[in-house]
Structure formats: C-alpha cells, structure tokens
Amino acid sequence: MHVQPRGRYDFPPAIPADSRPDVRSPSRFLFWLIRSYGWVMPAMTLGAASWMIPAARTPWLLGRAIDAGVARADVPAALGWVGLLLLVIAIGVGGGILFHTFAVRMWLLGKYGLQRRVSHRAVRLGHVLNRRVPTGEVISVSSSDTDQFGATLESFGHAIAAAFSFVLASVLMLSTSPTLGAVVLVATPLLLLGSMPVLRPLTRAQAAERSESSSLTSLATDIATGLRILRGVGGERTFAGNYERQPQKVRALGIRLGTWQAVVEAISILLSGLLLVALVYLGSLRLLEGTLSIGELISFFGYAVFLTSPMQTFFEFAQKWVQGLVAAQKTIALLGTDVPWADGGRPLGPAPVLHDEASGVTVRPGRMLGIVSADPDDSAQLADRLGRYLPQESPDPVDDAELTGRRRKLARRERLEERARRAREDAERAGRPWGVTADGVDYSKLDMASLRRTIVVSHTDAMLFSGTLQTAVDPWGTHARQDAERALIVASAEDIYESLPGGWQGRIDEKGRGLSGGQRQRLVLARALLRDPEVLVLVEPTSAVDAHTEARIAARLADHRQGRTTVVVTASPLLLRRCDEIALLVDGREIARGTHDQLHDHPEFRRIVARGMEDSDA
Amino acid sequence: MLEPVLSRTSAATWRSGPAASRLPEGLDVPRGAGLRRRAAAFRERHRIRTEVARQTYAEAREPKCGFPVASSAQAVGFLGELLHGRRRVLLGLAIAMNLAAAGAGLVAPFLLGRLVDRVTGGQLERSGLTTTVAVIAGVIVAQALLTFAARRSSAVLGYDLLAAAREEVVRIVLRLPLGHVEASGSGDLLTRITSDVGKMAVAARWAFPNLIVSVVLIGATLVAMVVNSWQLTLPMLGTALVMWLGGRYYLSRATAGYIMESRSYSIINSTTTETVEGARTVEALGLGDLRNAQIDEDTELSGQAERYTMTLRNFLFSMVDSSFQLPLVGVVLLGVWGHAEGWATIGQITTAALYISQLQGPLDRVIAVLDHLQLGIVSTARLIGVAQLDDDRTPGEAVPTGVKLTGKDLRFGYRPDTDVLHGVDVDLRPGERLAIVGPSGSGKSTLGRLVAGINRPRTGQVTVGDVDVMDLPLDRLRTEVALVTQEHHVFVGTVRDNVVLARETTASDEEVERALRAVDAWDWVSRLPGGLDAELGHGKVSLSPGQAQQVALARLIIADPHTLVLDEATSLIDPASARHLEGSLAALLEGRAVVAIAHRLHTAHDADRIAVVDSGRIVEIGSHQELLELDGQYADLWRTWRD
After folding, report:
1. For residue A98, what pLDDT band results from cuts at 50, 70 and 90?
2. In what residue span(s) does the ABC transmembrane type-1 domain sit (chain A) (predicted)?
3. Which residue has the higher pLDDT, A248 or B145?
4. Do B478 and A233 touch (CB under 8 A)?
5. Nearest in space to A538 (alpha carbons), one of A597, A447, A462, A614
C-alpha cells in the first residue's frame, strides 16, 4: 500500500509484492495499516489539527474584537482583531479541506488496498479458499470491514488533533479566568458522562431496530426470489400478510429508537443549557465586579459550545478502535490463510500417462476416455484427484446475527478453531504422496503451475464470469477469433451467440445469470475447449443439455479433441458412444474397460447407462 | 443452420488486442507543471468526472433491461399520497412541536442579550441577576421537554411513513404481471427491494423528519434575529446567497455522484463474489492474474467516483463552514458601527452572535438532508416503476366448459422483429402425456409458456374449455394449468404457509396433510416441532433440497390443476435426487394431462405422444412407435442414443 505509480494513474497505488500485512494480532494489524499509509496519516492529522485549532481560537478573537470595538470604541483595534478572525476562519476552512482530502485518501488506500489483497489471497488459495472461509465472510471482509478500518483510523487522527485543540482552548480559558475556565473544563466531561446512561438503551434500541430491519429486508428478498412461485402458483395474500406484520414491528421499534434519540437530544440541550446558565451567572458576577470584560464572557459562551466537539471525538475514538479490532480479527483470519502445499518443482511431460491408485484407472495420452460410475460421487472424486483438488466441502456459513455478546464471541472462537483444524488436515493431506502419478511421478513432486496448465478439470459448477460473450469464451484475451468460433461450434453454442444482441460483445451478467442452465454449460464447455490443454477432464459436460444438442456436441467434441487426452465423466450414451474407451467404476474401482460396443452387454453398464433401453427391448 | 449468423457477424463484433480501459481519458494532472496548467487540468478532470457521473445516473434512470423507472414527479406524488389522513395529522403535529421547541430555544439567547445590556448599563443588582438566570434555566428546561416531544413526533411520522411505503412496495411487487416475472431474472427486482428500499428508508426515517426540524429551526431563528435587530440580520443575506448558489451546485451533482459511487461498489462486490465463488474455476483455468487485474481496474474506477464526491463534499464543507462563520465577522463589524451610531446595543450583538452559532447545526444538516431526500426520491422512482408494467392478461367472466387444452396458430417472439414460434397448432387430449423434444433454441420452452398461460401469443390463442387462458383470472388459471418451474424455493413461514399457496383461503389442514402424504413428505413434516406450524427458512428449520422439492410438489397437488407443463431443463427434478423423488412426482402427475418439455429421450419415450419442434415449428408428432416408423429426426436421434 505504499505509494508507487502503476497503471495509468497513481491512485489507488499498487500493492508492492513484498509487503505482507502483520497478521499476528488485531492491534498489530491496525498499526501495520497505519505504517503502510506512509505520509498520509501524519498529513491527515495535521489537516485535522489545522481545522480544529483555529476553531479553538475563534471565540477568543471574537471576544477581543467586541471588547475593542464595542466596549472601548477602538475601531482600528477592532478591525485588526476582525482581520485576524478572518484569517483564522480561512485557515480553518483550508484545514477542513485538507483533513477531509487526506482522510478520504487514507480511507480509500486502506479500502482498495485490502480489497485487492482479498482478491490476491482468493486467487492464491484457489479452491482451498472455499474449504476454509464461507463466501459471505470473504465478501463482508472485502466490503464492510475494509470500511471499518477507514472509520477507525480517521477517528484516530481526529482524536490526536482534538487533544491538541483541547489543550489550547484550556490554556486560553484558564489564562483569561481561572475559575470560569475550571468550571468549563470540569463540566464538559461531566456533561458527556451525564448522557452516558441513556446511550446504552439507545444502542440497544438501535441494534433491535437494525436487526428487525434486516429481517424485514430478508423477508422482502424472500418474496422477490420466490416471486415466480407466488405469481405462478399463488399465495400472495399469505405472504403479503406475513410481510405486513413486520414493517409494523419495525415501526414500533423505530419509534422506540426515535424516543431514545429524542431523550439523548433533550438531555444534551438540558445539560449544555445549564452549563451556559452557570457561565452566565458566574460571568455576570465577575462583570459586575469588573474582573471580566464583556468580550471575555462572550468568549466563554463560545468555549462551552466548542469543547463538546473534542470530547465527543475522544468517546467516538474509543468505540471505533474496538470496532476496528473486531474487523481486524476477521481480516487477518482471511489474509493469514495459506495453501497447504509447497511446490514439488518438477514439470510435467507434454503428454503424460496418468494413473490413479485409488480407482486403478489409467488415462492414456491422446485418447478420449469415458468414466461411468454407479455412484456419481465416485467419478466426481476421481476427477478431483486427477486435477489435484481437495474435496469440495464448504465450511458452515456464519449465522450469528441472532447471538449477542459473549455467546457470539464464543461462536466466533469455535469457528476459528474449526478452521484451524481443517487447515491442519489439509496440510497433512498435502504432505503425503497424492496417489495419482503422471508418467510414474507422484503429483506431490510436480510443479503446481505446470500441472494446472497441462491438466484442466472442468467441473459441473464451473463459474461463468460477467463480461461479454467474447470474454466468457476467451477470458485470457489471447486467442484467435477462428479458434473461438470453432470452440463455440463444438459446444453447439451458436444459438447463444445469435440470441445475444451484439454478437461477441453481447452482455453476460454476473455468474451468467439470465442464461439457462444448458446455455451456461455449453459456454463453460466452449471456454474449456478454447483453453486447449493436453489433458481435459470434463465432469458431466452436457447434463443440462437436450438430447438433440447433446448428440451434436458428442460428435463434434470427439473430432475436436482428436489426438489429445480427454476424460469425460458422464452416463450419457450419446457421449459414451464417441469415446475411444470407457472405464466402468463400481464402488470407486475400475471393474471393466472397453468401447461402448464392448461394454454394451455388461449388466452393470446397462443398469447405469441404458435406462429406458430395457423397456423397449422387453 | 445457425452458423450463417455467426460467420456473418463474428468478424465485425470480435475485438482483438487488449481490452479498452473502462477509465476515461484526460484524468491526468501533470506533476511539476505550472500552477495555471495544473489548475486547468484539475478543472478538466472534475468536468470529466461530472460527465461520467451524469452518464451513470442516466443509465440508472433508464435501464436498458429490467423493470421500468418512474419519474421523480410520480415518486413525489406517491410519497405525497402516503401523507394523507392520519399521517397528515402527524405531520401537522410534528411541525407544531418543532416550532414550539425552536421558539423555546430562541428565548435564552434573547434574555442573555438583555442581561448583558443591563449589566453593562449598570442597571442590574445581584437579586435581579438571580431572577433572570432562574428564568433562563426554566426556559431551557422547557426547551428540553419540547425538543423531546418534537423529535419523538418527527420519528413517529418518519417510521409511520416508512412502514406504509414498504407495505405498498411489496403490494406492487406481488401484483407484477406473470409474464414479466417469468421473463426477467430476479436480480433487478432484488436490487430494488433491498438497496432502493434501504435508501428510501433513510429518506423517510431520517431525512424527512430532519428536514422539518432544520427548516423550522432556520426559519424561526431568522425571524428571531430580525426581531432582535434587523440590521444585524443583514450578514445572513450573504449566508443565504452562498448557501443557495453553493447548495444548488452541490445538490445538482451529488445524487449522480453518489449513485456512481455505489454503482462502483457493487461492481467491486460482484467481481469479488465471482472470484471467491469461482475460486476453483479461476485456479483451473489460470485466470488469477486476470481477476486481479479486474479488481485493480474496478478499484481504480471506484477511486475516481470516490474522489469526485470528495471534491463535491470539500466544496460543501468549505461553503457551510464559511457561511456560518463569516456572518459572525459581519455582526461584529456592523455591531461596532451600530454601537457607535447608537442603533445596536451590546446585548443585541451578543444575541445575534449566539443565534448565528445556533444556526451551524441546522445549516450543516439541511444540505445533507436534501441530499438523502434526492437519493430517496430516485430510489422510490425505481421502486414504483415496477408498477408501470402493463399486464397482458384480460380477466373476464367466462368459465371454462371443460378441460380440453388447445393452441391454434401460435406465433410469439421476445423481440419485436423476430418470432421464436411460427404458427404452431397443438391439441392436448385430456389426461394424455405429450412430450416436446427439439434442439436448444427451437422454441420448445416458449411453447410451454404459452400453453401454461404465462405469455400472450402474438397471434392465435390457447384455450381451455373454449376460454382463452389469457382471459382467465390468475386464481382460476392456477387450478386449470400450471407451469412446474425450477424453483423449489422455501419461503420464510410455516409449513402450511408454504404448501397452501394456490388455495390459501380455502385449503383445510386435512387437505394439506393429504398433499404432503401424497409426496411422501408427511413423515418428516409430522416429526418437525409444531408439525404444520413449524417455521421454515432463515435461521429456523432448514430443509434439504429433496425435502424442498417435495414441498414444491405438494403445492401443486393442493393447486390441483388438470394440466401440468413440465420443463425438464428448468424443472424441479434435480438429477441428484431424481430417483428419490420419482414416487412423489408420480403422485402429482397421476390423473393429469402433462406437457413435458423433455431433454432426456427416455422421458419422451414414456409419453403418449411426442412432438418434435425445430426452428419454431412442430415438424413431427405422434407416438414413439409412429415416429420411429416415420424415420425422421426423432428416429435418427433415438437410434444414436440407444445403440
């Protein structure tokens, strides 16, 4: 996050490759963050000081000017004071701009920097990420926690500046009138403390309102997601009724919240008003005695108003720092996660023979191998092993919105322990030989990057990224148009091209939403084909595609992959017919191998593949 | 058959070379150049950012796809409507209480001023001082109490308005025409119902009450200043001018700026979500560097948006800061002069100075309040825009005379110039199973939607018992024909709520139980705590995908339509649990006519008749045996599949 020009603009700056966040503890992380901003934090604090310190002088100058001009009728002196006052106001306005500008810079450096780090971490972890951290938590780190750091550190700088201005104002007051100064200095913190008791019910009311509001939002989301059913099958009245009860609940809680806010405001008016009254009383007595000038009294009115602001800043800072630590804990849990394996270092041969020990399946180069399994999980696990992927198990999503205080903390700790346990398991698993060999060498001795480049596994739930049709098929942006066209045709996806306005530039929405399952599947296939790896493992590539199209894909696929290694996990006879050979798995072990015609009469094979054949044969 | 389109336009629409940057040109400010050149570059950059913000805003107002957006006037009208009746009284009460509170707040500075006059005039004794101070203290106590009442009544009004608006929005959503619900994805609607309702909520519960508070306070303070001394009020003219001009500049840009900003954040979020959820795909295809490059550009774009609104805020802050502090200088200057001339007393000057410092809060707030009100109105316009969709359904009085479903000369297209179906006739015999097969894009799913009465065909009509399905009220249509969709969504609510849907007012518990028994779900439902009254969804009981599918099937048994349209591609039969659900599904299909849009040939094989659709026409129709004898497309495919 050091300033370092990159790309077209220097902002936001790039993350230096060698800088690593300090993830040893939440507070160390926050201090690391402060250091990483370089000159921005001091500049922001300076801006805050030049915004607040002039404000501390304004009441004093105002009093001077009134004394000189009005009480003593000394116009030139009054004009002098007024000139100074103008200067101080101008400095304050300038300081305000500086403070805000640097605060935003700091805020954004932190936010964007961490968002980029989250992305880098996700890319580095790959599929391991989905085993360790639920998606929702990564998104909440990337969107809200990164915001929290901005708020915490802004209030850090603000508090430092507030401390300076507080000291300055105190000195000015005490030198004018020690008694009045002491009254103000003692009374202001007392006033703020006086409003503390009502802050607790206020926070509770806020929390209750927020939680009901969010359950209201999820209720509305529920209706919107299920709208097809509600409009198609019915049930509008029931759910409109269920929903309507909720806004009324929020309304009641909102009024409770509004009441507490009104109490807080009334108390603050009462207390600051009473301080004013005390100042008036004491000040007027001194006026009568002649120990205080009228201008000085007016200054004190100003201080009484001014001093609440630094005080509030201190209280705010205490709160924000705690919130910042909570956010830091979540963030370092994510940024501190690493892949379980070290690189083996040996590159793969150009056309490797793969052998899986667990199933006994051998994948021969240049052939198209079909995998048929009684239990679809067995063949999916085989595909995972061939690609060196840990099994897909997602951690429990975080659902502690209902918990509070200690129980929430406890749940969080349990979650972290659970995660650490899984990390140990993964490390242990990765340390052993993998159980799949390429040209006789175990995967654990191979270079990961080279493995990923040579062997590509296209899973059933592969993600289609938003962008254009062109970037969906050729995300790398390195392929020739003719190759992309060919991939599209092999995947029989020309109709998608036609249905999108704008051809290759037609929009693909987030996660390919707006396309049907079959359309998504065919684009995923086209993308994998364009990647053109030595070994391509396709898991159920046509499960959502109709038989007509599937037949077309099967013929073109075999043709297209001629001479390269292709593994197809499927139970579709249309695809299997085109395979050079088929491995039949029962209980995760290969029990037979042969062409479609050779296996045609195998009872196990018929049971799995030829559903419907028996009916017509009977 | 589709290759021609590809070969015709492929070269023209393919972009080679690196993708163009999404950042506009000309944002650079040269380092080390002369002050004037730098200033010009800053101005140019601000202009470009304003331009981009306006474009983003215009796109948000006029979305290319998704639901329409209402005009701001309609949104204001909608909110105005909600302020009728009881809420009009609440509004009056809130204004009155705020006026009273503001009035009380103005007394103390006034009394202070008089006090100062009397002290400097030497007309005050200790006892007089005590009385005045006691009076001021009393006024402050009254002000605190009135402020409490004023803030509370404003909050009541705000939350009341919000609850009403929320209910109305959901009512609008639940009235959405069926055809549109099926056509547009839930994405746009979800954004509106979450983020737009959120913005509307801030406007209703925070901005609107605070607008009343601030405007009343500012107005009352100005009146009090004039009463105190009209000459000493003159500096406020400067404030008014600065606030008016500056406020206009800020407010005319802020909405677009903040919309651009929040848009940029949802882009970052969606990129991150894709990277995280698709981490496996990213790893498998070596897309890591590209994903990182994308987030880099997203944050760069967001940085531009953030720095645009920062500039606007800097402008606003300096304006507010100076517009409340400079009049203080004006009051001192005028005071010095007026005191010498004899038309202003020290007390009046004190009072004016105190009034001005009281104005800081409301002046600060009023712009922020207007800002959020603007955003709220934009969001409201998006929310009520949903209501502007035309319904192509024309419910009439006619009652179907039978259960025979017929479609004649059906033509239909999603875009005005291209039809997907070119004159299809289909005749469904009561109780028969008709399978529709054909390649993707042939129009078979569209045919299913027309038959189910989701969309109105461009020409021709679908009738059930001689009544056009589009003339049937939805409640009635649902008991005639139903489209079995892919969504086995479980709603937040009781098991009963989740099942009775189609006959929410008439179905008895016995019927619900019977439906659940029919789909083999009664076993687990009866074991749930509370049985039919068990609460499902979000933090309560959650169902397995198989159970959710059973609930979805039970819904249809309760609806009891005589005809079902089953789209295999989008149907609720997930292959993983298909075997387990076969019995449940069979129970549903029993005794009903079924139109099955089949992907798998065995589904087609089991049907009474099979229709082969190609390029928007039925090219073959007949039983499995007949089609094999015909030796056409179907026979061809069948042989490839089974041999």
Report:
1. very high
2. 58-323
3. B145
4. yes
5. A462
The residue type found at B257 is: G
Q: Residue B341 burial (CB < 10 Å; 0-12/13-18/19+)?
A: exposed
Q: With CA atoms as reference, report the closest residue to A560 among A569, A568, A570, A572.
A: A568
ipTM of predicted complex: 0.88
Note whether A214 and A259 are within 8 A (CB): no
pLDDT confidence of residue B1:
42
Question: Domains (ranges, CATH) in chain A?
Answer: 16-177+317-337 (1.20.1560.10), 354-411+435-611 (3.40.50.300)
Residue among B200, B95, B100, B216 at smallest CA distance from B157: B95
Q: What is each CA distance from B198 to A67, A215, A610, B365, in whole angstroms?
A: 52, 13, 54, 20
Amino acid at A225: T
The pLDDT of residue B578 is: 56
Shortest CA distance to A294 belongs to which of A54, A83, A73, A55? A73
B504 CB-near residues (< 8 Å, 6+ apart): A234, A235, A237, A238
| CA A361 – CA A372 distance, rounded (Å) | 12
Residues of chain B with pLDDT under 70: 1-4, 64-66, 182-187, 485-487, 538-539, 568-581, 643
Please state, in angstroms and rounded to a whole number, the distance separating the CA atoms of residues A351 and A374: 29
Task: List the Cα angle A516/A517/A518 in 5-degree steps.
Answer: 90
Percent of chain A predicted with pLDDT > 70: 94
Among B residues 476-495, those touching chain A with beta carbons less than 8 Å apart: 478, 482-483, 485, 487, 489, 491-493
Instruction: Find, among A89, A62, A91, A90, the residue nearest to A78 by Cα.
Output: A62
Q: What are residue B86's phi and psi, to 5 degrees?
A: -60, -35
The pLDDT, as a whole number, for residue A2 is 32
Question: Number of C-alpha atoms within 13 angstroms, CB side, residue B334?
Answer: 21
pLDDT for residue B571: 45
Mean pLDDT, chain A, rounded, equals: 86
Whether the upstream peptide bond of residue A365 has omega within 30° of 0, thus cis, is no
User: Residue A466: its chain B contacts at CB < 8 A?
Assistant: 270, 274
Distance CA A541, CA A458 (A): 8
Mutate to test the interface with A, among B87, B166, B333, B500 (most CBs of A within 10 A): B166
